Amino acid sequence: MRLRAALADLTPLRASPAFARLWAGYSLAAVGTAFGYTAVALQAFDLTGSSAAVGLVGLAGLAPLVVMGLWGGTLSDVHDRRTVALASGAVLWLTAAGLALQAWLDVGSLALVLALVGLQAGGQGVNAPARSAMVPRLLDPALLPAANALQGASQNLATVVGPLLAGVLVARFGVAPALTVDAIALGVALLLLAGLPRMPPLEKPTTRAGWAALVAGARLLRTWPNVRMTFVLDIVAMLTAWPRALFPAVGLLVLGGGAETAGALLAAFAAGSLLATVLSGGMGRVRRHGRAITLSIMSWGACIAVFGLVLALAPPLADASAAVGDAGGLPWGSPFLWGAMLALAGAGACDAVSAIFRQSVLQSATPDGQRGLLGGVFIVVVAGGPRLGEAVSGALAEPFGEAVVPLVGGLVCIAVVALLVSRVRGFWDYDSRHPVP
């Protein structure tokens, strides 16, 4: 009975067949995205040999994600949310197919890859807010933490399996097959999305979609400190302590194993996230969401700092391969590989807990008429923050090295989060039984 209570709550899947369909499509899309991102990052490093180029992959999608995430969120408050999700999902599928095609044709152009990544990020900026805004329409509010945990579990399972398999696939056969998996998964997810019911606005919109709605939303955020803090704290965590852009160089130059090690590090991070979401049954009983968010993000910073410390202690490699696609094999006998993976698994668990409670605060404290807009802000933060963080960590790795960046960044994350929360005491005391934005 104790184990059952600790496991993820499946009630949302039983209570709403429509949510179950939405969740299945989300899960497939997550698998494809995990394959796609890993393959694109490895392709960028293989073309240039630079961690900064891997950071550029994230940066290329930042501006489209910000613009389309904010603007696309307003579309979901004014138009049918299923229609918005279908149109943007088609863009995601087409760009994934384009990435796969350029790889099969061996174009070898980083500029083309970055352009397609930017288009895909724009589609994601519209698609994610629409899907997020659907969930409160399909479920009772009390089931929102459980629903977010289930979506987090599928996302994390995909991120465990995806990078690990993509790393092996790239090492053995190149990037094209991994990008093809992405295109196929997104295509099936689009078909599942088409089977959902229509979701027009519940009330007549007070503003038109576009920049006027964004201005109105910005004014609301100024008066909603708790919702605002969920965004600010996540941005701090990503800007100071998100080391994903370093993984290809770590596999090639620090730990050994090349692409397979890069995939294993991503998988370790996701494994920790998956474990946290699988054992999320007790999260529905947590009422002080602000405290849960704060403590989980500070713990994230500590884990990233440990990851940097492990890299700093790792001995120099006797021989580093010049090509990321070389199949050197994972150095399973290295205690430093295991230490790095355990630190990242801990960081992944902390990130999952933070994400569940941050999204629950957003969905429960925000009125339905603003959920699309605020969902757009959420996707800009959760997807745009890591992209900007990758650019920062990739650029800093050039002068300071792959170990110093996460070690110092994790400690800075802890200090900044503690300072911010001490200045907004209402967030620390936030009670989900009385949601106040």
Give structural notes.
- It is a single chain.
- 78% of the residues lie in helices and 0% in strands.
- It is built from 18 helices and no strands.
- Helix 6 (81-104) packs antiparallel against helix 9.
- The longest helix has 32 residues, at 17-48.
- It is mostly helical.
- The protein is globular.
Shape: globular
Find the count of extended strands (DSSP E, 2+ residues): 0
Low-confidence stretches: 321-327
**Biggest sheet features:** none
Secondary-structure-derived class: mainly alpha
Number of helical regions: 18
> What percentage of residues falls in helices of 4 or more residues?
over 70%
> Mean pLDDT score, rounded?
81
* Percentage of residues in strands: under 5%
What is the terminal-to-terminal distance?
35 Å
| SSE sequence, one letter per element | HHHHHHHHHHHHHHHHHH
Output the radius of gyration: 21 Å
